[in-house]
Amino acid sequence: MGRVRKSLVISVVVVAVVGIGFGLYWFQPWKLWQDETVDEALPVAVGTAAPPATAEPSTSTEGSAPSTTEPSAPSTAEPSAPPAGPETLADGELISHEHATSGTVKLVRLADGSHIVRLENLDTSNGPDLRVWLTDAPVKEGRAGWHVFDDGKYVSLGKLKGNKGSQNYTVPADVDLTHYSSVSIWCDRFNVSFGAAELRQA
Question: At the fourth CATH level, which superfamily is domain 87-202?
Answer without folding.
Answer: Superoxide dismutase, copper/zinc binding domain (2.60.40.200)
